[in-house]
Structures are given as structure tokens and as C-alpha cells.
Amino acid sequence: MRPYLSASSFARLFALRLALVIAATILFPFLVYGLIQATGAQKVSGASGALAVVLGVYLKPLIFVLFAASLARISVRRATASGLPWVAGALIVVLVLCDWQFGVVFGAHWGVAFSLGVLRASATSLLVALIAVVTLIFVRDRAETMPQDWPLACRLWMSLLTVLTILGLPGLAPLLLWLPGMGTVVILFLKLKLWLSMIYLYPTILLATFCAASVYLVVVSRSAPGGDIGVAASKPPQPLSTGLAGNRYSRSPNARFGRRA
User: Fold this and answer.
1) Most-buried pick from 66, 94, 145, 185 (CB within 10 A)?
2) Residue 113, CA distances (Å) to 56, 160, 178, 185 in order
3) Is 0.85 surpassed by the pTM of this model?
């Protein structure tokens, strides 16, 4: 796996994956309708709804998991190319998976949410993942000499990203409950999220803080010489052109058509 991935390539690859999952979400009801017509389920009472629920329960999770998995490689490569820990790319994938209920229920038959026991689908973790992706697009590539404030900005951004990921883990509760001893942990996290939401700390204040930290990270990464912000690095003087015999020609206005000054 190549460690380097430019910001433009990362933006293009992410946009392609996002466009595919949006297209799949929009076209999914038409796929269900076509299968109902093809199988003749509309002629049997209740068969159409049952087929729509079965397709939604099995196909929508597969589409969403494939989308999250497709982000793993490019996110890790872009994080390492920008000087951030590779864990940042992995956390983006976890954040996407934390809101699997929203990805599965959105655009599907209402019976899908009922069958999966989804009472309320939130897209908070998806929003955090989107902010992180946009940050990776605008952060400058890693250089030999990074700005002095880069370690502080990096630690602040990674800390907030980790905290938001941990708070989003209860979204995986239906999957974590199958693990031994995780029931108590999931309940504690749900109580913590409820308490934080009561004081508007999650997601409002933490999201606003993470946005500010993302802007700070981008500005700091581009404040070094050669970045878009700050003083550009001085360019070395261009050497004088030489002829076939090694004679140098002057760049003065008097030199014309190869004549010596």
C-alpha cells in the first residue's frame, strides 16, 4: 500500500464513494419496486411489504458496510501523508459505522426500522466523520519542517476526534451487546450521552469545538514556508543560460537574438 495520497486524489476518491452510496440510496426504492413487479409479489396480500423489508434488512447494511470499508484505505493513506497518525483514518471508518442505523434506515421501507428495533437514527457521527474528511482535504502535506504549533494542533484535533468517536460507540450497541460483559458498558455510555446532551455538551459544544480545532489544524499546517498561508519560501536565483560553447549570455535588455552584451 502506497503511504502517500495527495489531497486532490483523496477528495476525488471520497467524492466518488459518496456519490455511489447516495446513488444506491436513491435508487434502492426503485430496485425494490422492480423486484416486486418482477416476482409478482404485488398480487399477494402482504408480500410486497415483506419483500421490501427483507431487501432492506439484508441489502442496505451490506451497502453501508462496503461504503465504510472503502474509506479505510484512502483515509489512512491521507492521514499519514498529512503528518497525522494513521489512527485518524481508522477513526473515520469507526465514526461512519457508529451511525449504521441511519445509513440502513434512510431511504428504506418503514418496516426495516421496525424489524431492526431502530427507534431513533442519528447522523452525528457521520457529521463528525465528514468534518474530519474535509480537514484531511485542506491540511497541507507533511513536510520536513513542520510549524512549531503543529504538535499542539495535532494533539488537540486527535483528542477531540477520539472523544467524539468514543461517544458515538453506543450506536454500535446492537452489535456490542453480543460480546460478553458489554451490556453494562453500553448502558453506562448511553447514560453518559444522555447526561451530556442535557447540558448541550454533546453534540452541540463538542461539535463546535471540533470544527474550531479543525480550522486551527488547517491554518497551522499551512503557516510554514511554502504553504498557502504565511510567507512563501524564497526561490533560488535562476542560473544564466549557456550556449553550446559554454558561453554565458547576459539577461540585460541589450542582449538580443543570442548576441553577447
Assistant:
1) 94
2) 9, 31, 20, 24
3) no
